[in-house]
Write a structure and sequence with these properties.
The structure holds three protein chains of three kinds. By secondary structure, chain A is mainly alpha-helical. Helix content of chain A is about 80%, strand content about 0%. Classes of the chains: A mainly alpha, B alpha/beta, C mainly alpha.
Chain lengths: ~250, ~325, ~290
Amino acid sequence: MSRLVAVAANTFRETVRERVLYNLVFFAILMTLSGLLLGQLSIRQDEKILKDIGLAAMDLFGTLIAIFIGTGLVSKEIERRSLYPLLAKPLTRGEFFLGKFAGLAFTLLVNVAVMTAGLALTLLATGRRPALALLGAVYPILLGLLLVVAFAMLFSTQTSAALAAVLTVGVVVAGRFADVVRNMREVAPDVPPWLAEGLYAVLPNFQNFDFKDKVAYGDPVPGGVLAWVTIYGVVWIAIVLCLGLVSFRSRDFQ
Amino acid sequence: MPAPAALVTTGLSKSYRTGHIIQGRRPALQDLDLEVQRGEIFGYVGPNGSGKTTTLKLLTGLLKPDRGDARVLGEPLAARSWRFRAGYLPEHPYLYDYLTAAEYLDYAGRLFGLPASRRREKTRELLALVGLERSANVPLRRFSKGMVQRAGLAQALVNDPELVILDEPMSGLDPIGRRLVRDLILGLRRAGKTVFFSTHILSDAETLCDRVGVLRAGRLVRVGTLGELLRLDVQHMEVLVSGLAPDAPGPWARRCESVGERLRLEVDERDLGRALAAVEAAGGRILSVQPVRQTLEDYFFREMGAAAGGASAWGEG
Amino acid sequence: MTWRLALLLVLLVPAVPWSQAQIDRRAGAFRVQEEVLYLWSGTRVKRFFPGFEDVAADLYWLRTVQYFGGQRLFAANKRFELLRPLIEISTTLDPRLEMAYRYGAIFLSEPSPIGAGRPREGIEVLETGVRNLPGSWRLRQDLGFFNYLYLHDSERAAAILNEAAALPGAAFWLRTLAADLLAKGGDRAASRRMWQQMFDQAEAGIIKENARMRLQILDSLDRGDRLSRLAAEFQRQRGRLPARLDELRVAGLWNGPLVDAADVSFGYDPKTGRVFIDKASPMWRPE
C-alpha cells in the first residue's frame, strides 16, 4: 500500500511539473473570465451565464487534462522504458497502475478545487454570493473526469499515447451522446432495438455527470440522485480500472 | 547449510511473435539452464540479438517465460520477496527526466520501503560512489548519457542488494566512467555480492568476470571460467626491435612486421632466447617483449565465425 | 490473481444498468441540456453556426425528439414550455425541416397530459411551416385538419384544404373533404377521414401512434353513440331506459363488448340514456 502511495505521490509530482497542465488551467481561467464579459453583454441573467461558462470550462479543460495526461501516464512509461527499472523492484504492476491513477486523480481534484475557487471568487467580484449548491455540479464533473482518466489509462496500456487519446476522445464524445443513442429509435425507427440498447449498454453515460443546467438555474438537485450517480461512477471506474489492470498485467515488454 | 545459488534457471524459454499478417514465432531464448554462484561476477556475453536482454527481462519480470523456471536467491521467480534483495540496471536506462538524481533515488528507496533517514543516507552515499554528488539536485533532463548511466547504476544499489543484475553497464561511458564502474563491480564482489551482467564489450568481461556464459542465437553454448574457455597458455611472444633490417631475424621469427622504423616479431615461446640473441648479434636493440594469449575476442571469432555475423555483431558500446 | 479480478468484474457489470435505472427514476430519463434556452431565438442560434446550420438543425431536432419522444410523452411533468422554442430554433436553422412543424403542431395542440393543450400555438407553428414551405401540400393539409379538429372551424378548414388541393401532388380527395366540411359543418366522419389520412401518411413512430389513438377514440365514440341509440330503442320497447348497459345484452339488442377501445367500461347515465367514455379511460378527451 505504501508503494502505491509512493507511486501516487510521484505521479502527482510528475503532473505538476508537466507544462501541459498549466497551459490548460490558464485557458480554463481565461474562459471563465470571458464568461464575465459575456455576462455584461447579454440581456439574460449574467450570473447564470457566468456559472454556466465556469462550469463548462471546468468540464472541458478537466476532460482535456484527463485525456492528455492520462494517456501519457502509462504509454509514455512504456515507450520510454522508464518503467523497466521500477518493475524490477518489489513493485507489482497493480500497485504501479493504480498508483498512477491515484496520482492523477489527486491532481484533478486539486485542479477542480482551484477552478471552483476561481469561479467563486469571480462570482464574488461581480457582487454575487456563490452558493454551496455549485458543488452539486462540481462533484459529478470530478467523477466524470476520473472515469475519463480510467479509460485513458486502459487504452494506453496497449497502444501509443496518441492512439489512446483518440480512442478516449471517442468514448467521451459517444458517452456524452449516450442519451441520444438510447433514444435513437425515436428519430430512426428502423434501427433494431437490440442495436440501440446494446450500444447504450457498453457506453458510459456521461450525461449522468452533468448537473450544470440544474445548478445554474438554481434548481435543487433531486435527493438521492447524487448518491446513485456516485455509485454509477464508482462502478464504471472500477470496471474500467479492472480491465486496465488485466491488460497491463498481461503485457510483455519486448 | 550453504546458501543457495544466486540464480538458477531451468529450461527458460521465450519466443516472440513476428510479422503482422502472417504470424510466426521467433525463438529468442531456448532452454536456458544457467547457474550463477554467490559472490561471483558472472559475465553474460553474446552477439546482438542472441537473447541476453531477453534473459534479463525474463528474470526481472518484464517478460513472461513461455516455458521453464528460475530461482533467484533461493526464491521462485514469481515471488516478490527476492526483489527486496536484488538490483537491476536496464540497457539504456531512462529515468524520469522531471526528477533530480536525488529525488529519483529517494523514490526508488520508497519503493523498497526504506525509511526516510536511510533513504537520505543511501542517496548521499550512492551519488558519491558513482561520482554524481555535485549533480544531486540537477534534473535528470540535463544529464549526459554517461551521467544517466551512472545514476541508473546508483538506483540499482539503493537497497544494498545481494544480487546485482546489470544490462550493458558500461554503455555510454567514457574511459573514466568505465573505470569507475569496473571498480564499483569489483568492490561489490569484495563486499560479497553477486554480480550478473551482460555485455558485448569483451575486454570488460575478460578483466572482470570469474565465469562467463556465452549465448548464441538464443542458446547457451559455453559456460565456464575464462581459463576453461580460453587456452590461457601463451600462444607466442611479441618482440619489438629497432635498428634491424626486415630480413635480419632469420628463422626464429614466425612473422615480421614493420612498424615505422621498428620491427614487430612474432616469436614462439620456446625460441625466445635464441631469437633475442640473434637480434643482439645482428646489432638490433630490443625494445619490448610481451606474451600474447588468446583473447575472448579470438575465442569468439573462432567459435562463432561467420555464422554469428562476424565483426559487425560485435560493435563497441 | 486474475480470477479475483474477473469475479469483481462479474459483480460490477450488472451494477451499471441498475444504478442507471435508479438515476433515471429520480432525475428523469430524458434530460436535455437547458442551455439551449440561452440561445433565445432561432436567428441568434443561426449566427453561431455559420455554414453548419443543417447539422445544427438536426442536432436540435434530435434533442427535441429525445426530450419529448416515446412513451415518456405520456408521463407526468413534461416541460412543454421548451417545445416551442426548440421547434422554433430547429426550423429557423433549417426551414425545410417539415417533420418539425408537424411534430410541434401535434404536441402543442393535443390536450394535456399528452401535449401542451395549446392548439393555437400548434396552428401558428403550422402556419410558419406553410409560409416557409409553400409547396408542401401536406403541411397545408395538416393546417386545414387542425383548424377543424382543434378549433372546430370548418369554414376555415375547408378553405385551407382547397388551397392544399390546388398544389401539385396533392391528394385527390381533399376537395371532396373540403366540400363535405362546408356542407355538413363537419362531422365525425370527416374527423375520421382526417385522422386516417394522418395515420396513413405518418411513418412508424409517435405521430402515427397518436393518430392511431385518435382513431380509436373515434371508434369508441361511435360505439358509445351506437349504445346510446340502442338504449333509446330499449326505451321504445320497454317504456323505460335500461338501468345498466348489461340490460341491452339481456334484451338481445347488443351482443358485443361494452367497453371502449381501451377495454374500459363505458359510462352510462340511466336518467338520460347517454353512453359516454369514462373519464378514467385513456380514450377520454375533453370536448
